[in-house]
Amino acid sequence: MKPISLQRAKSIRGNRARLESLVSSYPNVVGTMIGLKARNGNLCDELAFTVFVRRKLAADDLKMSHRIPKVISIENKSVLTDVVQIGLLSYQSTKFPPNLGTWDGTETGSVSCFGKSETGLFCVTCAHCIAGADLDPNTPATIAVWSPDQADYITVGESFISVTGNGSGISGNYGFSDAAMFSCLDQELIARAQRAKVLQAINLPKLGQVVSGLSGAGMRTGVVMGVEQRIGTKYADVVIQAGGSGTFRGDSGMLWTDTDGNAVAIHAMGAAEGPGQGSSLTAAMSAGRAKKLLNVSFLSSWQ
Fold this sequence. Notes:
It is a single chain. With 303 residues, the chain is mainly β. It has helices at 10-14, 16-23, 187-195, 287-294, and strands at residues 29-39, 42-53, 71-74, 77-85, 89-91, 102-103, 108-109, 113-117, 120-125, 142-147, 152-165, 177-183, 198-199, 210-215, 218-231, 234-242, 255-258, 263-271, 281-286, 297-299. 10% of the residues lie in helices and 44% in strands. The chain is elongated.
């Protein structure tokens, strides 16, 4: 599947409000996004106006009046729709170390990458991963990182800046903000950062872009299945369909990168599925927005 530029989504973007008004009255609808059409469970190279429901039923089990149209005609153009079931989205940090990632005394998460500015070198992660005992990412918390050599967490610095918020729903500044940095005083990590390369941070990726991420718990893979998601009053820049067993608690903060090594998004949330199952649908903050808000350059993986 060849990735699709958002330039081809002008009809959906320009008529988003009207499209949403047409589907919002259907039973069970909880949100929408600009996405790829799925056929027989596989993503296709077709743009669609994705409609999220809490429970997806077979067409034969629905009244005709409750079936979302497969195509919506608007301004003499046909817009494909797709109906996707999604569970409740929640942060994927965890209270049960060791996760082999970051530890703020309360939650574990994953380091996204190094951040570098004129004032120094830092580590980047999600704001909710460095909130500390008072659960406030805007107050300092001591941050430790798992050391495979010592088989323990080692203190590396303190949190000092975070950006949080639900998102405006406006293109260019669409989704939630959930990014933070903590100081890096560990000499081994500093040496790694000095060898690291600057990453290009993407504002919004192409649909169908293959991505991967290294969390504290292991390698994750996925495909960008949608952008500019709205679920109720919450907004997200990027939605990634995770491959394999999905993503799990502890993956928050993981940096999704594309096949060229560019920074695509910072992982934050996964949709609830069955007990013990990973999340196949995940929500992330655009790496380009995070980089801009934190006012740093992103350097390649801290691993």
